[in-house]
């Protein structure tokens, strides 16, 4: 049915038109005038517009969510960048600290090597003094040995002379006794 077309009405349709309620009658008339197709297209268009608005609302929500995620990712990227900066600074500070420690240890090693060198010189002087003392002791021992031998010789001579003196004294005593005896005998 349409506004400029001929229509064939079914049998029983006229009675439906006469007995129809005002709402149904209005639908029949709109259909005959072509308004119902317009209303149908309008309803479809309104539905599409409504779905488009819903899609736009969903897109807006999605865009806001993506913006929040993007902001969070941006903050994370800044934090990661700061972390990398801090890590680089930490590596640099650790390297400087290691260099300072190495330098301090190197200085300590130098100082201790100097102390060891001085102690080695002192030790060598003590060793030289000990060798000199050992040589002096050896000379004194040799001298003592010589003196002991000379003492033994002198002592031997002393005992020998003492023995000779004792014999001479005995001989003198014996001579004196004999002289007395002879004098007594005379």
From TrEMBL:
Coiled-coil region(s): 35-103
Cross-referenced Gene3D superfamilies: 6.10.140.1720
Keywords: Coiled coil
Protein name: Chromosome segregation protein SMC
Species this protein is from: Pseudomonas syringae pv. actinidiae ICMP 19096
């Amino acid at each position: 049915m349409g506004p400029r077309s001929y229509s064939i009405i079914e049998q029983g349709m006229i009675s439906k038109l006469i007995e129809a309620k005002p709402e149904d009658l209005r639908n029949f008339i709109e259909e005959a005038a072509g308004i119902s197709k317009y209303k149908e297209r309008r309803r479809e268009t309104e539905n599409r517009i409504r779905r488009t608005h819903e899609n736009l609302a969903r897109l807006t929500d999605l865009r806001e969510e993506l913006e929040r995620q993007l902001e969070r990712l941006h903050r994370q990227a800044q934090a990661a960048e700061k972390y990398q900066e801090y890590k680089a600074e930490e590596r640099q500070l650790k390297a400087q600290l290691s260099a300072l420690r190495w330098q301090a240890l190197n200085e300590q090693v130098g100082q201790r090597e100097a102390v060891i060198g001085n102690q080695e010189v002192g030790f060598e002087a003590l060793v030289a003094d000990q060798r000199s003392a050992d040589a002096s002791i050896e000379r004194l021992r040799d001298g003592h040995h010589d003196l002991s031998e000379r003492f033994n010789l002198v002592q031997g001579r002393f005992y020998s002379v003492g023995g000779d003196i004792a014999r001479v004294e005995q001989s003198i005593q014996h001579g004196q006794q004999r002289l007395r005896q002879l004098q007594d005998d005379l």
